[in-house]
Amino acid sequence: MVTIRNLTMSYGGRTLFEEAGLTINWGERVALVGPNGAGKSTLFHIILGDESPDSGKIERDEFAAVGYLSQEAGDPGEETALQIATAITPEMREVQRTMRKHEAAGTLDAPEYAAAQDQFTLMNGFQLEPKAKKILAGLGFRQEDFDRPARELSGGWVMRAHLAQLLCLEPDLLMLDEPTNHLDLMSLLWFQRYLLNYPGAILMISHDRDFMDAIAETVVEIDERRLIGYQGNYSSYLEQREKRYEQKVAAYRNQKKEIDRIQEFIDRFRSVSSKAAQVQSRLKQLEKMKTLEKPRAPRKVFKFHFPKPPRSNQKVIELEKVRQAYGETQVYENLDFAVERGDRIVLVGPNGAGKSTLLKILAGMVPVDGGERKAGYATKLGYYSQHRSEFLNENNTVLEEICTTGEGMREEEARGLLGSFLFRREDVHKKIKVLSGGEKSRLNLVKFLIDPPNLLLMDEPTTHLDLLSVEALIQALKHYEGSLVFISHDVHFIRKLADTTWHVGNGTATKYSGGYDYYLEKSGLLDDARGALTA
Predict the structure, then answer these.
(1) Which helix (H) or strand (E) is 485 found in, with range?
(2) How far apart are the first and last CA of the chain?
(3) Which uninterrupted H or E stretch holds 50?
(4) How far apart are CA 187 and CA 393, in angstroms?
(5) In whole angstroms, what is the distance from residue 69 CA to residue 168 CA?
(6) Could you say which DSSP state residue 274 is in?
(7) Exposure on the CB side of residue 98, measured as CA atoms within 13 A
(8) How far apart are CA 527 and CA 187, in angstroms?
(9) Which pLDDT does position 379 carry in this prediction?
């Protein structure tokens, strides 16, 4: 379906690809992986024809339809969520207008109505709307939101509508750039199941390891400017990549031994006339030999442990009969919630149910309308949000901010930790005031790792992190000796850390005394996702 040959591409003075090749076959499910900045999104744009490589060929089957979901949707107009999902063209709108005009007038026998109906049938119009409604419902839209103008929706919901559009159109090649970013767990489960039965090929970029494990059949890694393919899902790729590195190291060492052996012979007998022919033979052997580069070790998860936080009370924090509303919208009524020392709690539920509000109530950032919030006298609370950066000194450099936070931390330790969270080389000397929102979020995360509270409240901590940084955070939090309450849409992250699940929705929170899989089993969420898929 798509073949890339001898691709070379430089961007901003840096070579992203050099003589790289890739083939995507009909119906294949491919995950494209590599560190941030390796060129994943650039490769997408090359395949789409939006960017031209310096050299190489990109061959696409002329009969293959391609659909692309970017990380950001454009500014929505007056179209509704349903109109976005059905991808109604001006031609289809005109046909619909003609049909409705005759239906309202009762002139169903008019030739113009018959022609419009025939055109609508050719455009697959009668099947498109029911299919779009089913997909929108699976992605979390309520029926009353189908006809809401997209400009009234948040950016995340507009992205879901565009995702629904692609699923409705069913292109032969579905290209997805971080498709799970705006999905809650229910819609993620539905989407995952839908893709398992998708008839076309899929090429995706994702930082969601669990999602890639469920969907991908092939993983293509951008490694040393080449595209290296591995059969299997993401977990299988990690195992194969380690074996491949060991094989490359063995081949490099063997060749080096062979070169040293040949060179030793040349040096030893260079001036011996009777050995001249053999020396020349070995010199030619060295000239013809393609010297292997020393293999670069795959990036490893940076290991870091939280310093031991001060010991908290047994009951770290408690909410009793809490009532909370925003205007006429009732978020909570008679909410009881408690965190015990050592708890690892994940808050799950649909977007807009009040998970972030609950975290802010626990953090004391939102005063409650009724009820009581009681924190233990020894509770040292820390709140992390991907949008919270007011505790950073904007005049400090990144390195200064970390060294100031971590008393006694050596500069090389600070650099190592910052590198694990994507602050590398000269990045550590940037002033905080010039950092992006994502960079400030990551820096806040590093600060929590250095000076931890005994109650850590985290709202989507894996946003803006690559896969290895997520693993570093998981390992650090596993050994964290305080209590943790967090929100995440990263299923792998949840599975690794949560031992208690609270479902938030309909003005209350329901406790499940187990991790994510226990919650799925007891809540019936898997059955709901299956039902939405087959409805």
Answers:
(1) strand 483-487
(2) 32
(3) none
(4) 38
(5) 13
(6) G
(7) 17
(8) 13
(9) 93
Question: Phi and psi (nearest 5°) for 79?
Answer: -65, 150
Contact 53, 225 (CB under 8 A): no
Amino acid identity, position 413: E
**Cα(270)–Cα(24) distance, integer angstroms:** 52
Q: Scanning the structure block, which residue is given the tokens 């692609």?
A: 166
Strands in 34-95 per DSSP E? 55-60, 66-69
Q: What is the DSSP string of 94-115?
A: HHHHHHHHHHHHT-TT-HHHHH
Dihedral (CA of 112, 113, 114, 116) sign:
positive
Taking only the tens place, the pLDDT of each residue in 145-199 is: 898 888 888 888 889 999 999 998 888 999 999 898 888 888 898 999 999 999 9
H or E element that contains 354? none
* Tokens encoding 231: 């059969």
Q: Which residues pair with 226 in a beta bridge?
A: 223
User: Using CA of residue 506, residue 509, residue 515, residue 518, what is the dihedral sign?
Assistant: negative
Question: Which of 328, 325, 271, 263 lies closest to 291 in space, CA to CA?
Answer: 263
pLDDT score of 2 more than 60: yes
Instruction: Please check the confidence at residue 535 and state whether its pLDDT lies above 70.
Output: no
What pLDDT, in 10s, does the model give residues 420-468? Answer: 777 877 888 888 888 876 678 778 878 877 878 999 999 988 877 778 8
Q: Give the closest residue to 260 by CA, choosing from 231, 280, 289, 301.
A: 289
Beta bridge partners of 207: none
Q: What is the DSSP string of 78-96?
A: S-BHHHHHHT--HHHHHHH
SS3 content of the chain, % helix, strand, coil (to 5): 45, 25, 35
- What are the CA-CA distances from residue 1 to residues 12, 108, 334, 481, 515 (Å)? 30, 45, 57, 51, 41
Give DSSP secondary structure letters for 9-47: EEETTEEEEEEEEEEE-TT-EEEEE-STTSSHHHHHHHH
Q: How far apart, in whole angstroms, are the C-alpha atoms of residue 43 and residue 503?
A: 39
DSSP result, 292-316: PPPPPPPPPPPP--PPPPPPPPSEE
pTM of the model: 0.80
